[in-house]
Amino acid sequence: xxxxxxxxxxxxxxxxxxxxxxxxxxxxxxxxxxxxxxxxxxxxxxxxxxxxxxxxxxxxxxxxxxxxxxxxxxxxxxxxxxxxxxxxxxxxxxxxxxxxxxxxxxxxxxxxxxxxxxxxxxxxxxxxxxxxxxxxxxxxxxxxxxxxxxxxxxxxxxxxxxxxxxxxxxxxxxxxxxxxxxxxxxxxxxxxxxxxxxxxxxxxxxxxxxxxxxxxxxxxxxxxxxxxxxxxxxxxxxxxxxxxxxxxxxxxxxxxxxxxxxxxxxxxxxxxxxxxxxxxxxxxxxxxxxxxxxxxxxxxxxxxxxxxxxxxxxxxxxxxxxxxxxxxxxxxxxxxxxxxxxxxxxxxxxxxxxxxxxxxxxxxxxxxxxxxxxxxxxxxxxxxxxxxxxxxxxxxxxxxxxxxxxxxxxxxxxxxxxxxxxxxxxxxxxxxxxxxxxxxxxxxxxxxxxxxxx
Length: 454
Ligand SMILES: *[C@@H]1O[C@H](CO)[C@@H](O)[C@H](O)[C@H]1NC(C)=O
Fold this sequence. Notes:
The chain has about 450 residues and is an alpha+beta fold. It has helices at about 5-45, 55-70, 140-155, 175-185, 185-190, 240-265, 315-325, 335-340, 360-370, 390-395, 420-440, 445-454; strands at about 75, 85-90, 100-105, 125, 130, 165-170, 195-200, 210-215, 215-225, 230, 275-280, 285, 290, 295, 300-305, 330-335, 380-385, 400, 420.
């Protein structure tokens, strides 16, 4: 059949109308859902879950209502009264396969309101697209990105093979003892049959995302020197101050050697022992300050040391007892509670490290999934501080620290913590890709396919 001009024009008109209508409805839909996505993030940020009295009731209610809107199973677990952990579940089609755990903490550190350009609990979106709030990086972003990614996957009709758990835990910022620690040891957690835990990472100042496979252990060291007191005008050896200062000099040299290897680009922060002087305590008080003509008989200094699991701890302990606090220099030392508790070690006393080689399929899956979503992972790192991930690693579960935040300054615990909305939205796409890859992963199926190829 031959079409006459008017007919062709009519069809053309119809097509263009359809096209216009379609693209309009698509763009208005994505715009409205984008503003919905941001506004849900803002709602969570506005909940004051800051210490010392986090409002866990409100955060739990909010998370449960999100879960309901997504038709996820939900339960609230109170292993310690008043400290709820919200656990959501998206049931997989092969629920016998070990599950995926998307983990986050609900609490945030306090904020000094007067030092912020925008109030820390108003989640102000500025004209550049930055969202200012305590928790915007650490780690309410990740919690909501998990949920938004699940929302998108559900909209597309994606069916996870493995079950997916989302855990929102209290108290990470005060050590996680009533949160992750008790949860990891609970019957509830053991029954979940978890294969892999995802927890928080750190923002990256460049385009590569950061991912963490282990973390440093804090050693809180206090060294103390005692000596003969004396007149402030007298020169003599072995005063408490002199002996303490000798140690501090030695510690400073060690600190510089560690720091130099970072400055030279040879090592990352996670690979070296960091050591910082956090207090000095000495002097004889007077009504106006300190007595100036007296050399005191006691002097103390405190250090926050962070030790990577790759470091030989015995030699570090020797360094402390032989160089930094030797008894022959009339010195003594104490190491904070974490040291005694075999922090960051598994049951056999070995460093708790998640493998990043081919023995751990979850690492490669993460790398590929991030890449497929248009991102890139940097070299695997050791987390310089502590996260709840250690409790799971200590029990032998692989756990990866990852927050999809690139091109952003690290403002964890800092004033004016912010996240750009585009970076947040990109992070949701990254999680869509990761959740899809993780929830679909079935080693047996791959084996089968491999057999076919043979
Ligand atoms: C340690 O203390 C003793 C007793 O006060 C003193 O005789 C000695 O010189 C001190 N040694 C050092 C190295 O400070």
